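Data deposition worksheet. Section B asks for the primary sequence of the deposited chain exactly as it was used as input, without tags or linkers unless they were present during the calculation. Section C holds the resulting structure in token form. Section D is free text for depositor observations; keep each observation to a single sentence. Incomplete worksheets are returned to the depositor.
Section A, Depositor: J.P.
Section B:
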Amino acid sequence: MTVDRKPFAVYAITKHGIAIASRLLPQLIDADLFVSEKLMISAPAGAVRMPLPMGPTLIETFTAYDCHIFIISIGAVVRMIAPLLKSKKVDPAVVCIDDAARFSICVLSGHVGRGNSFTDRIAVALGAQSIVTTASDAIGTLTVDILGRDLGWTLDDMDRNVTRGCAAVVNATKVLFVQETGEPDWWPADKPLPEGVQYATSLEGVDPQAFEILLIATDRDISESHPAHWKNAVIYRPKSLVLGIGCDRGTAPDLVNRGVLTLLARHGLSPKSVKELATIDAKLDEPALLTLCEQYGWPLRAFPPGELDVVSGIQNPSEKVKHYVGSRGVAEPAALLAAEAEELLVPKQIYTEPGAGRSMTLAVARRTFVKRRMEVDSL
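Section C:
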């Protein structure tokens, strides 16, 4: 569900439509039913009175819901919503149901807006046939624009190479999926990769011009280290990094923010792949850390000093730190514990600025993921 949007709006303007809506509503969580005001006497409790024509109502509701379910003909719906459309990045899903509930049809935002998923769900609820027309879903291949989304992956840039990637996969041209990190179940383990798609776990030895497109799951910024690969790739950001963090009491939030971004950039890592921050429990109320988490939507996880002190893999233990907080380190062991990792990706780094009078520390660990069985295909 998109932030600040309600899940479902259902629209019915016939008696049959109201009956279908009454069957559907119990299967949906937090759905609002809008009914033609002339038929309100037949509407279930809680229905919202809707004057006809529907245009003024849709102007108010269109951006307020994740999914709009119309028990109305597709032609009428298309004409009504056309002036409200902006882009697939923000448009909600639109699903149409015929007046006999035989079909559940995805009309808009099949992938990014989850329209295809909603369509299937509605079809199951009504015992109807799901109609999905996006090519990748119809032929059962990779959905490039939402690959890994259910695992928390995000696109590095929704506008760069995504359309080209979708076309390459649908047309079964040569595509290489390179998985440097991330969950293995982005594709069913017991299902062969789609025609034309090969798999690898490293960019080394890969000729980016040998493929129509590269699909790369990575937490690295490869725009400078591998510019030719980056240019011909769709980049996915799995949530693979854990930031172990500590700071002096009262460190300015802006300094901590700049420190995190500076140190990640210095080591070629993307903040879009950060899963969470980890620290010592004494820092759970530190304003700078709370501000950072709120700004980026990162959870803050904390450990008691006794757990941190016994972690193996600390590269920079400090008896001075232990004297003050009860553990030989904060950033390094917190990152290792939260990531369930055995070694650090980035050992403790210190960041401060002239005249700040405060400093922060940062360490990075990468979460450990089980490898796919098809480790590396020959390229």
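Section D:
The chain has 13 helices and 17 strands.
The mean pLDDT is 92.
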